[in-house]
Amino acid sequence: MTYKRLLFSLLLVLSITMTACSSKDSIVENPEFAQEQTDFINELDVENIYASLKKLTKEPRVAGTDSELQAAAFLTAQLKMTGYKVDVQPFDFERYVMPDSHSLVVEGFDSPLSPAPFQYSVAGNATGELVDAGHGLKADYKKLDVKDKVALVAVADTPFYELVLSASDAGAKAILLYFPDESEIDKWSLGRERYEEFIPALALTYEEGRKLLDFVKSVKSANAAVSIEGARIEKATSQNLIATKQSSTESNDDIILIGAHYDSVDEAPGASDNASGTAVVLELARIFKVVPTNKEIRFLFFGAEEEGLYGSEKYVSALTKKEIKQSIAMFNLDMVGSADAGELSIQTIDGADNTVTKAASRANKVLNGKSIETDFGDRSDHTPFHNAGIDAALFIYDPVEEWYHTPEDTIEKISKERLLNVAEIVGTSVFKLTSPSINNE
Ligand code: BES
Ligand code: ZN
Predict the structure, then answer these.
(1) Residue 183 pLDDT
(2) Which CATH architecture best describes the domain 3-96+234-434?
(3) What confidence tens digit (pLDDT) does each residue in 318-342 have?
(4) What's the sign of the alpha-carbon dihedral 398, 402, 404, 407?
(5) Ligand 1 contacts CB of residue 396 (under 6 A)
(6) I need a labelling partner for 407 at 20 to 30 A (CA). Which of 122, 297, 391, 428 fits?
(7) How far apart are CA 311 and CA 297, in angstroms?
């Protein structure tokens, strides 16, 4: 080699090294790892994800029903085909059943009324004097006697369950709520749970509420009879599914968790919520099966999320102290495919960064050229993990689509590109967290 060529080679090596060092990204630092990572992610097949989504969205998958069980059977079969042993973790939970019938009769009031029950309305028959209870705030009841009466409340900003509890606290027998606008009353919910203290509650349209208010003001007194029948709490059974990929090394006993709930709400095929997350986790389980990892990876499929995070609560409550300590990251995928939702958001219970958000933000930088800021969000299965002290985060396109929790949550509204994007981000994050080649093992 001539002196000139040697100098040229040295300069070339120097310039490559400098470029590599100028970036913090290990992809550039370690081209071999970058290649491994790219090869790995290329294994993802969005058509697999879409095919699972199609199977899952044939009908709603309400927790405790046969269709949830069938979804579990489908997932189990798929995981077994990939080579996993599947652990089934059954659990009981209490399910709220909507009323079979309801009625409202107001003495002397002739206009038609079309009241609607709320989710979590309690059953009961109550007759009492109808009273204008303003906005139904605690302060309103200080100046008003509603004992054994029926309260008529114009909803302002207070959550429904609070309005029902305040009326109950003041001694009312039932409550009628009407809305300050023309909001459509379909299946309103009083909140996330049923309280023992609830009294029968029905919703009226704005127009009906106003008319009734005028009526109440115009008469000396009028009785209202509220009846709600059939609303009840039922014991039901659901199950979590767990597929575990063992670590390829013995020196590290950390665990990574990747989960999604596979149940849906009633009447919704739940394509976005949450066949999307379920199908992505299934595909991640498939591609990780054959990769050596230096940590154990558990793929979790939760039942009964929509009834109140029962599946994830059960899973976390059954973990040993040791397992909790070993669990360094929990990735929760819920609503990860809607074409019509907002941008991808990564949410934690305290809005703070953790192992999951850092890994995902870095992965997004590698894949999409930008990092992602962590948002606050507590409306899904990452909550019990966080509460147990495990770094956890939710992946969700937010704000969510308009038809969230409706029969319109169908596969046509799902974007393959968005599904793949989340699969790649979570896949890359977990690959990096579990790769022997960058952990010197
Ligand atoms: N996928 C949703 C969570 C969600 C919805 C997060 C919209 C952010 C925006 C989840 O399945 C759900 O509906 N959760 C319930 C709470 C649960 C405890 C019943 C909710 O948020 O109302
Ligand atoms: Zn969901």
Answers:
(1) 62
(2) 3-Layer(aba) Sandwich (3.40)
(3) 999 999 999 999 999 999 999 999 9
(4) negative
(5) yes
(6) 122
(7) 19
